[in-house]
Amino acid sequence: MSEEVGFVAMAKVERKVEEIKSMGIGILGYAFMGKAHAHAWKSIPTYFWPPPALPRLVAICGRTKEAVSEAARRFGFEQYYTDWNLLIKNPDIEIFDNCGPNNMHAEPCIAAAEAGKHIVCEKPLGRNAEESRRMLEAVRKADVKHMCAYNYRFVPAVRLAKKLIEDGLLGRIYHFRARYLQEWIMDPNFPLVWRLRRDVAGSGPLGDLGSHIIDLARFLVGDIKAVAAVTRTFIKERPLLEDPSKKGLVTVEDAFASVVEFDNGAIGTLEATRFAGGRKNYNSFEINGEKASVEFNLERLNELRVYWREEPVRDIMGWHEVLVTESYHPFYRYYWPHGHIGGWEDTFKNELCHFLDCVVNDKSVAPYAATFEDGWKVDMVCDAILESAETGKRILIRC
Questions:
Q1: What does DSSP say about strands 118-121 and 282-289: parallel, antiparallel, or unpaired?
Q2: Within the chain, where are the H helices?
Q3: pLDDT 10s per residue in the chain (399 long)?
Q4: Which of 66, 139, 214, 354 has the fewest C-beta atoms under 10 angstroms from its C-beta?
Q5: Smallest Cα–Cα separation from 255: which of 271, 238, 277?
Q6: Which domains are present in the chain?
Q7: Which residues contact 236 (CB under 8 A, 6 or more apart)?
Q8: Coil, strand or helix at 87
């Protein structure tokens, strides 16, 4: 199966080791996602040998000189900047990897496209669909490769679910239900970080967590044509970071729930919250078809649960847990012997190696990875969910 599910075809490209070129990488952002992406770029030759190219960590950019200079040394970058314009102007950078906050996605990516850089941008692509549309237009005009980093497409178990669906083993799809649940801001004294400000983040768990499950819904089932949703902000004010004695207004939702309708007739439910006590990073989905069902939970990301309605032995009909770690499973031929489980950070290695392969060998980023078009369509759904919650109406999505 691994031969059929994406970037692994790069292994068939004949090349001598001495012919492997380097590819200059520039990253905007050095915190959570910046660290994840930097480590993934650096790890690609360790796992995917021979790689499409050797990632060269040219420069990293951040606002604070002391912190970004430390990150450059820690992650192995040759230089650092505090001005993203200088990062983009560096001629040695061929791939621009945007791991900045949501309000730093549009303008740097548009400038990078105009400079002829290939672009990876973290999700959500924009703070709203209009911002995403501008980004999509820029990369199309510049004719550069582009990827919106929905990394859960690159979980082996998720890719196995995709293969089962494409092979018709689930039959007609009836239901998709997904939840992305966390608990990290339940304390009312948790400060007013940027993710709780609409001017920076665009939305709350809808864009942060919900965008992931919307992308998985589109990836696995198909386009969403309508939504009906509710949102809630449970804690209206929080202590300011710069002065905890004062409070500021939370301007995003704390949770959302939505009913969705797919173009192909399937129906679904989506839910995301940061107020689910006991849930750490619970990204889960279940898909029910006429012949079978599949279930996935990121907190047990090496497993895919499968139910076959036509189980040949009736006495053992029920859910079966499949450990997705065999060499014939997606991506695993590049990792460890069977049964040696993988982890969350491997998804970044998989997606960035795929993108590197697409740039070097002029392959299509879609359908295995999300492009800026996919990112825009996800943001269209996010905007519709917010509109539905505000108006109390069912909203049609017109992409």
A1: unpaired
A2: 32-47, 65-75, 84-89, 106-114, 129-142, 156-166, 198-201, 205, 211-220, 346-361, 372-391
A3: 234 444 444 444 556 677 899 999 999 999 999 999 999 999 999 999 999 999 999 999 999 999 999 999 999 999 999 999 999 999 999 999 999 999 999 999 999 999 999 999 999 999 999 999 999 999 999 999 999 999 999 999 999 999 999 999 999 999 999 999 999 999 999 999 999 999 999 999 999 999 999 999 999 999 999 999 999 999 999 999 999 999 999 999 999 999 999 999 999 999 999 999 999 999 999 999 999 999 999 999 999 999 999 877 677 788 999 999 999 999 999 999 989 999 999 999 999 999 999 999 999 999 999 999 999 999 999 999 999 999 999 999 987
A4: 66
A5: 271
A6: 2-151 (3.40.50.720), 153-391 (3.30.360.10)
A7: 249, 250
A8: helix
Alpha-carbon distance of 165 to 389, in angstroms, equals 32
Strand partners, 119: 96, 146
Strand pairing report for 395-396 and 118-121: unpaired
Is 283:297 a contact under the CB 8 Å cutoff? yes
**Tokens encoding 251:** 């301007």
Burial of 19 (0-12, 13-18, 19+ CB in 10 A): exposed
Give the β-pairing of 282-289 and 267-273: unpaired
Measured distance CA(115)–CA(91) in Å, rounded: 9
| Terminal Cα-to-Cα distance of the chain (whole angstroms) | 33
Contacts with 217 (C-beta within 8 Å, 6 or more apart), sequence order = 176, 178, 224, 260, 262, 268, 270, 285
Cα 40 to Cα 44: distance, rounded to the nearest angstrom = 6
pTM given for the model: 0.95
The sheet with strand 22-28 has its strands ordered as 79-81, 54-61, 22-28, 95-98, 118-121, 146-148
